[in-house]
Each structure stands twice: as C-alpha cells, then as structure tokens.
Amino acid sequence: MAEGRERDAGLSRRAFLKGAGSVAAGGALIQEVAAEAASPSRTIDGATTIEFTLNGAKTEVEVEPRTTLLSALRSHLAIPHTAAKEVCDQGSCGACTVLLDDEPVCACMTLAVLVHGRAVRTVEGLAVNGELTPVQRAIAAEDGTMCGFCTPGFVMSMTACVERNPAASAQELREACRGNLCRCGTYPHLFRAAERVSRELTEEIR
Amino acid sequence: MKGARRTDGPAWPERDTLQVLHHDTPRRSAKDKVRGAALYSHDRRVPGMLYGRLVSVPVPRAEFEVDLAPALAIDGVVAAVKLREGETQFLGQAVAAVAAETPELAEDGARAVKLTFRELPFAITPDQALAEGAPQVRRGGNHSKVRPKGDEAATEEALAASDAVIDVTYRVPVQHHVCLETHGVLCDYRGGDEATIYASTQMAFGIPGAAAEVLGLDEKNVRCIVEHMGGGFGSKFSLDTPGRAACLLAKQAGRPVQLLNTRTDEFRAAGNRSGSIRRVRAGANEDGKLTALRIECEKLGGIGRGAGGPRPYHYEPGASYFEERAIHTHTDSSRAMRAPGHPQAAFASESAIDELAYRVGVDLVAFRKANLSDPVWHRQLDRVAAEIGWHDHPHRSAPGRGDGWIAEGIGFAISAWGGGGHRGAEASVSIRPDGGVAAMIGIQDLGTGVRTLVAMIAAEELGLRAEDVEPRIGDTILPPGVGSGGSVTTGSISPPVKIASYNARKAFAEHLASILDCPSERVRFQARRVFDADTPGRGLTWEEACRTLPKTGIGGHGAWDAKLQGSGVHGAQAARVRVDLMTGRVRVLKMVCCQDSGLVLNPLTWRSQVNGAMIQGLGQALFEERVLDADLGLALNAGLGDYKIPGTEEIPELVALIDEEDTREFPIGVGEPPVIPGPAAIANAVHNACGARVRSLPITPDKVLAALAKLEKEG
Question: For residue A34, is pLDDT > 80?
C-alpha cells in the first residue's frame, strides 16, 4: 500500500534512501538516480516541495533532503505543528513520536522527503471536535503529565498500540512506551493510565 | 514550629471541612498537554522569527579568535554575534552565536563561523587539578580554603574509644538535570522600545531586567511569558547563555530570535549537580549509639563552587568534626539541582550509618532511631519499614548472601528540608458579572501543578469548584511571583492567592449584603451558592449573585503573609532491591516514601512530585554519571543515548505516603526533599541483599561484581 502511494507521487523509497545516504555521509547529493521502469524516481537537489497528508489534510511543504520530519512539522509548515517535541535529536527519547502510515516513528530520525505521498499523524490530530481519545483521557485523569514535554510522545506510542490491537493489555501499552523517556517521573501514573485504557477498551469490545 | 493558625482574617480552614483543597484535583493543564495544545517556549512561533544557534570551541580550554564573516556570507544567515573574548574554561562554553531563517541554516551558519584556537592545558579530574604544576582553574587557585567545623580533638578521642570504627570514602559523580525542554528563549524584539521574552525559566520575574540590559531597553518595557515549561530542576534561574545570545542576535537583526540549546549544548554547558568525595571516619558502640563522626568533603563543581549540604546529615553523633573544600576543574559549573548538596551528603551519611549498624549488629531501623531525637523521623521510619516488609525480612542486622543466583535486600535513608515560602509574591482575584473568576499571579509552573493550586485556593475560598476558576500565571504583566527554587513556590504563592481570594470574597459579601438583606458577615459562599447564614435555604446561585455585580466586576488583592505557610519537613524512604549475583545487575523492586509537608493542598499532584523524586533518586543511584575523557577532555556521554535516565523498564512499585500525623494546618513545599534519600536507600539495600558495599554512585553491575569478588576473597 505504501509503495502504491509513493508511486502515485512519482517518488520511490529507494531513490530517497540513496539521496538520504549521501547526505548522511556528508557528500553532495546524488546527481544520478537510475530510472526504474516499475517505480519512476526523481533526484532531489536542494529545496523541494513534498506533499503528504497531515492529520487527514493534504499538506505541502518545501524542504531540503536533510530536513527532518520533526523540523518540517515544527519549523517549516505554514501552520507549525509543535506538539511533537525535539528533546534528544537522536531517536533516544520518543518525545517526537508521530504516526507514519499508522506506525510510530521518531520524527527526528525521519527525513521529511521520505513522507512524500504518505500519511502523518500527530497528537494535534487525535481529538475530534475537541473530544479526547481514551488514551488522552486516561493520561489526563491519572495525572500522567507533569511538565508535559514528553506527553505527546507517550500519547502517540500508546495510540499506535491500541490502534494495532484494540484489546491491548496494560502490559502491552506499557511496552509500547519503552522508547519514551520522562524526566519528571510520571511513569507510575502513565502505567495507571495504561490500565485504564485497557480496561475501558476491553469493556467497549465486550 | 513556624506559622500558626489565626482566628480572624484569612486562614486555612480545618482539614476535614475543606471542600476543594486537600482533595485529589486533576491537573489544570493536563488536557492541553495530552492534545499538544500546551505551548512551551520551544513551541512559540512569531512572524519573522529567526532560529539561533550557539558556537563553541571543541576543546576544554583554549585561546581563541572568532571570525563571523563566513557565517554571514551564507544566504539566509541574518545575524552573528561574539559572546566571549580570549579564553574558554570548559568544553561547550559558547563563544559566538548565529541566527538564520531556518534551524538548518542556523546550523550551517554555526559550522561556518571560523574559530582559530590554541589549545591550553586543562585539569578535568580532581587529581589533575590538585597535581603539582596543574593549570590554574580559578584565580584563587584550584581549591577553596578548608572550612572546618566541630571539635577535631574530641572527635579523634571518641573515635579511638569506640567499639566499632569505619574509615571509608564515598563518591558521587556529577549528575545532569536533563530537563526535557532544553534551556532556551524566544526574544520577540523587532526594534523599537519593547520586547517580549518567552523563556523556559524557573524565575520569570528575573528575565525582564536581564534581557532589558542586553537589549538596551527599559526593564518595564520587557515582558516575560512562561506559559508552560519543560522542567528545570534547579538549572533555569537566569537569562543564561542562550537567552543572552538570543537578545544580542535579535538586537542586531531587528527581528525575533529563538535560541534553544541543542541536547549536546545542554549536557556540556547547562549546569549539573556537583559531584563529591567524602572520606568518613565514624564510630559506634555496641549499645547502638553513634560516638563520633568525622567527614572530609571535597565538592566537585567544575569552575563553580559545588554544593555541600548539612553536616552531619541529621544523625546525632557524640562528637563530630567536618572539613569541606571545593576542588575546581575545567568543567562546566555546577548549578542548583533539586535539593542541592543533600543527596550527596545523605549518600555518605546514610551509608556510614548502615555500615556501623552492621558492625555493632543492631537492627538497621532501631539503630537509626537510636541516633535521631526527632520523633517525626521515628514514626516515618516505622511507617516505611512496615510498608516495605521489614519485619518479615530475614536480614535486619546482618546482610544476606542470596541463593547463589539472586539476592533481595532492603535499605533505608532519611531527609530533611525547609520548604517555606518568602515575601515578594502578590496575587489578584477578580469576579466578573458572567460568573467567571480569574486568579492571577505571574508565577511559572515547572510541572509541579502550581496552576492547579492557584485555582483550588480561590475556589475553596469562594465556595466554587476548582474548574470554575481560571488560573492565570506565567506572565510578568501579572502580580509578581517568586523564583521557583528551594521548594519555596507553594509557600510563597499560597498566602497571596488565599488573601486575594479572601479579600474578593469580603468585597463580594459587602456588595451582596443589601441584596440578601443581611449583614455582610452573615453572607456565606458554599457549593456554588450564596446565602444568608441564618436562612441557608434561600439565596442565590453563584451566577445569579454575579449578575448583580457592576460591569467591572469585583475583586481582591493579596500579598505574602508568613502566617499562612510554614517550613520544615522530614522524610524517610525504604527501597527493596533484587541483585543478580551473576551479572551484578540491580533491579529496584519497590520504593516507599513517607513525607510530611503540613497541609497537602492537592494530594494528586503531591504524589506525582514524590513519585517523580523517587524515580530521579533511582536514576542517580543506578545510572547517572557524566563521563569525561580525562586525557582529551571530551564529553563521552553528552546525549540521551549514552547518558541513561530511568525509563519504563526500570520503574519499581512506588508508594508515596503523606505523613498524616503532621497536623500543621498550613502548606509547605515538597519538591525537593523526596529526591534526597533514594540513592542511599538503594545502595544500602544492595548491601543488605548480598553484602556488596558499593561506595560510589552509580551502582553499576561492574561495581557490584567487584564488591562481591572482594567479599569472597575476604571470606
């Protein structure tokens, strides 16, 4: 499915990865990317405009190959989306967790060009008409937020878990947050939130 | 006991009559935080804003020159400034800063700044600093004068006469605050006479003056906003390097500049908890009494002084003598960090107490109580001992050995803190004709729940629910707050908010007296109703009463009053650990904290604070240590991938107990004390489990295995 979306957009993952690799290595952008009959590719050099859906809305943004998804969301969009936080900038803390085609990823470790044609969801897009999701409600109710800087990341990790498995146990929700760090020490409260989410969703299924 | 109840004027009602306070109340900002609507200084975006970045020399100490021209030659780099001339004193000390149209261009600009430098000799470790011919760190030398306290001769005499004596050294490394929101500021200045500073700070009211000085403006035209901030823990009290740089860049560009520390900047140059080395000689007699305590302390605060802590740490030895000095190294200065000096002091004192109790073969809790006269600690120790399962524990006066694979043990430690507020804070409460109530005080909320407290205090006074009151905080155009350090916030802001609410209520009662046809003293505010105390069945709803107000509404103001708060708290903690004897890995299974803090205003956020403090203590006990390469001066773990803080997998069962026997009817701050005893309690539990005494934090598997090997060798 993801492949299909990429193809529609006229960009292949392989081309992007090659481009990204050359940037990471510190060299100039690859000037030549072999044309693949089955998946047309494009060379990216300098600023380019990508299109993706952000919380369900078609979004365009101009980025460079080096721009991370996190930077694109926070600093390059016409309407900045700042819920995902930059904390470690190396994929260690999960504060920038967003859903990319429904999978949790660290936006600081994802190049913006890689989300072209794909669907990104952030914490800003979860509540519908102001109504919080069960995960959001539970974290608020159990005092799972102190300074709150890590909160969006925990919300997204738990959200991905319950979307994957609506009958997720509290333990599974806890494990879904293994990549998330909190410094204030809200963990026990987040674990209680996980129990509450699991309880509520299980009751709903019954 | 400081603070007292009063019968006239504003007073905290009896505990059991409280309707809002002393009841679990949801954190006011929680909904905004879970939906990403809470705006931090990192999240502020204003038109024309530039992104700033700091530049530093990649060695600990150097003579340097800065050429900004190559940075300014980059299209999109708008401003560049020098921050320092001459020499650097530690790795990461900023020498320049640039501002550009995007964060990526700012990074390009920072890389393009040309640094010409000559590396100078440095002293990173205490040994290097004290070696002959060591490069000088501070003008006064590489160590401060020794400060003695106590009677040395009497202490030596008592040591010589003791039944058991220990002579050991305890080491605590430098720990980092690791605020998830790095230090940073958005300086919204576009030329002209005014500026707004969005700062991640623990002292909003300290920012306008400092920023005005850099911008060359009048302080009263500079406003600071701290709507939300992502942790401080003692490290965010000034405009600081990123703030100063943002102001300088904004002034040069005539455009707003946001400058946030990178995580690397944060680890290298945003402060830390000082390390310490304590040589402890202590004695006890077989009757279980401490006879003598001698501590020689070296504080490791880099170019700063470091934090010492009380001496002795609350236990009462017969004779005592202490020496303390600071050793300076070419490393970033220590800053205040949650209970400065105390965890270090407690680790040494509590470990020593433990070692002596085992030497004389006395129950660890009984030994502690025998050497503490304050009964509050006695009851708190008893409570945590009961909760952790001490009385069924097999190793109460001699350590266990485990079953060859794993071993379980229990450890204890205590703490004390002040937690009182101070003058300076003021508050206003206004009631509008539409029924809305705003409680206003410019104080910042570090994540402790201040915003919620402000609403709760006003709601209690006006007979409303907490959610009926809109708390307005974190802005210097509001009545002044205080700096949030030393656990002073609750004690500093509760009195003015209480008094402002009281005055608003009195004014409203006078207004309502004619409407209710009774003297104002008989007007009651209860359960969102207003009525004459003599005819409680009649009266008005809150909204009906408010509709009688003039358009401008009615309100009250309040200033700090010492009588509405107090100071002085105790705490005791117990930890239960499991040691893997094959790998040396320690797992904390349970931690219990019993803490007094007067009238607990919001037990929900109180528990969050105490649980969080225990978790930070666990991190200091098992994981956290700044690691530097002594030869190259490089920072080896200046990132969250290498500097380990507790994560979801390491969290034990946590029990935060309010000491309900503390009947003081006024609030006391609690942010710091529960962070103190954890490392000592965990170290003591490791020893209790298997006999491995680890005298240096963090208690990593290699140290546990080394201690076990030593034990085996000694038989």
Answer: no
